[in-house]
Amino acid sequence: MTEVRFRWPGRASFAIDVPAFRLEQGESVLLLGESGSGKSTLLSLTCGIVAAQAGRIMVAGTDIASLRTGARDRFRAEQIGVIFQQFNLLPYARVLDNILLPLRFAPVRRARAGDGHAEAEKLCESLGLPARVLSSAAGRLSVGQQQRVAVARALIGRPPLIVADEPTSALDAATQDSFLHLLFAQVREAGSSLLMVSHDERLGSRFDRVIHLESVVNTQGADA
Ligand SMILES: Nc1ncnc2c1ncn2[C@@H]1O[C@H](COP(=O)(O)OP(=O)(O)OP(=O)(O)O)[C@@H](O)[C@H]1O
Q1: Start and end of every ABC transporter domain (predicted)?
Q2: pLDDT of 51-62, one tens digit each?
Q3: Above pLDDT 90, what percent of the chain?
Q4: Distance in Å, CA 80 to ligand 1 centroid
Q5: How many A from CA of 43 to the centre of ligand 1?
Q6: How many CB atoms lie within 10 A of CB 179?
Q7: Largest alpha-carbon pair distance within the chain?
Q8: Which residue's alpha carbon is nearest to atom 31 within ligand 1?
Q9: Crossing angle of helices 116-126 and 173-190, rounded to 10°
Q10: CA distance 109 to 78
Q11: Ligand 1 test: best mutation among 16, 31, 40, most atoms within 8 Å of CB?
């Protein structure tokens, strides 16, 4: 990410400016910051969910900031597995269909997943989800189980980048630890890079690098 500038439309009070930030292939980085400091905004920029007003955001060799909306959505589906804060599962759809969803918009990733069904089963097993949950509606699962489904959905088809927004915030300390253990094992097996944001410094020991948001991002309030 180079010389990126972003301001929410109609909001003068918050802007971010990233002179330079780089994540190596296969690297895991934890980005720490207070609530409201712009962590989710930075992830949305990285994923192309929102478009920067200036700068370059290179993901797997492509400047995501230069793509138009439709192309950006397709690029994200191919290259990035996203684990949202609230998981964003389709509650009435089966767990299996939730996991396979990103492959629908991503032919290269779909080809890598081979038989998506078999990979979904394998991921669930590795993440400690019993095979029978694959046919349950996602909304019927416990929070911890939904979190694992969100991880399986992000990992299916081994996208080069996994982006995670506070994925452990709803878990107690012991569950957090086992969740992170499983997530890291799967990310390593896939050879993906991992960019996670959190306000919780205790998560840092597992990551290759821990960065404080304010060391890479300048935030300013124009009307402050
Ligand atoms: N969709 C949006 N429209 C307008 N302003 C937004 C939007 N999303 C976030 N903001 C603003 O951007 C600023 C940074 O929010 P952001 O969610 O990126 O912070 P955060 O560090 O992820 O916070 P938290 O840890 O509480 O999730 C806040 O002032 C917030 O009000």
Answers
A1: 1-224
A2: 888 999 988 889
A3: 46
A4: 21
A5: 11
A6: 19
A7: 54
A8: 36
A9: 140
A10: 6
A11: 40
